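Record type: monomer structure entry
Structure origin: computed from sequence
Chain ID: A
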Amino acid sequence: MTQLRISDAAALVGVSDDTVRRWIEAGRMAVNLDSSHRQVVDGAELARVAQEEAGTDRDALDVGAGRRSARNHFTGLVTRVLSDPVMSQVDLQCGPFRVVSLISTEAVRELGIEPGSVATAVVKATNVSIEARG
């Protein structure tokens, strides 16, 4: 069973330490003490709450949510667009994560993508590797 310090739990789900403490106070997750008497939360409980939270705020910004087969979608703010005549690099800040996409410059123009606009990166991958924290 993975036990995470409150600060680590907050960083992993992209919220403040105070938000995790509010979740604990509201009874959404339990808090324990580790061997050094620091407060820790169970990783599985954190995952459950993170999934609940992800469905509330982000789907409101993702107009395509629920209407696509790709399960991996990240809604965020466009931070940079680098274009040449044919291709463009679009950088999105999706919570604590930077997502970069290479799309045609024509698509950038047609979609009206520019820094400051909200967009959703949809990822359909044939292979996703997982690296465990050791």
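Annotation 1: Strands lie at 3-5, 31-33, 39-42, 72-83, 87-94, 97-104, 118-123.
Annotation 2: Residues 43-61 form the longest helix (19 residues).
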